[in-house]
Specification:
Length: about 140
């Protein structure tokens, strides 16, 4: 039996994945996601996420662009090839306009430059969850 994290959202709340090679960033974003009432899982790389078994239950993915192995854009492309309807938010220190344009053109909900505000990420996450194939998902723990 899996013990629920004390700040984790209800078991039926949407699962938000965080893919970033920086542990401190993963932990910070995970805490924010949980404080908003959603479940969160963290992954140290795109490859770890792809092999995690969470492809079918992840509704939204918060992804860094520059990581060892597959980049955020490459992960986005792989998910499209696998026909996974996961909504993607890029949260990255890479400020390349071409990468930003490519991510958004390929369907990313947002491309947030680090550092970003909590509210900016919460708004992007709400937008992602609202447009996910599972219908409108209300915010659980915060107002935006």
């Amino acid at each position: 039996m899996t013990k629920q994290h004390p700040l984790e959202g209800p078991a039926n709340s949407p699962l938000v994945g965080i893919v970033d090679d920086d542990e401190a960033v993963r932990d910070s974003i995970s805490s924010l996601v949980r404080s908003a009432g959603y479940r969160a899982e963290v992954f140290s790389s795109a490859e770890v996420f792809l092999s995690s078994g969470h492809l079918s239950d992840t509704v939204c993915l918060i992804v860094d662009q520059r990581m060892p192995g597959l980049s955020g854009l490459e992960l986005q492309k792989r998910l499209a090839e696998l026909q996974c309807p996961i909504r993607i938010i890029f949260a990255t220190s890479q400020s390349d306009d071409r990468v930003r344009a490519a991510a958004l053109e390929q369907g990313a909900v947002a491309f947030l430059p680090k550092p970003f505000s909590d509210d900016a990420l919460i708004k992007a996450m709400y937008s992602a969850l609202k447009t996910a194939n599972r219908g409108i998902v209300p915010m659980l723990g915060r107002s935006v």
